[in-house]
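WARN retry 2 of 3 for item q-0093 after timeout on previous attempt; input resubmitted unchanged.
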Amino acid sequence: MVEQWLTVNEAAEISGYHPEHIRELLRDGKIKKTRKYGPLWQVDRVSLLAYVKEAEKLGKKRGPKTAS
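OK item q-0093 returned
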């Protein structure tokens, strides 16, 4: 399978996460297959989708918290 590398903004658009949250996940190593060229992060599409699927399975919600 050919790897498909995404920019942070593309990953945010696909996942629904904010770009800064994507960067945090990358820095923390929570998304497994990433690379960094200078100041730019890239993420493998399959790794991103695997993380999103696992996060949803564990009940982690996307987006800002709302007041109850």
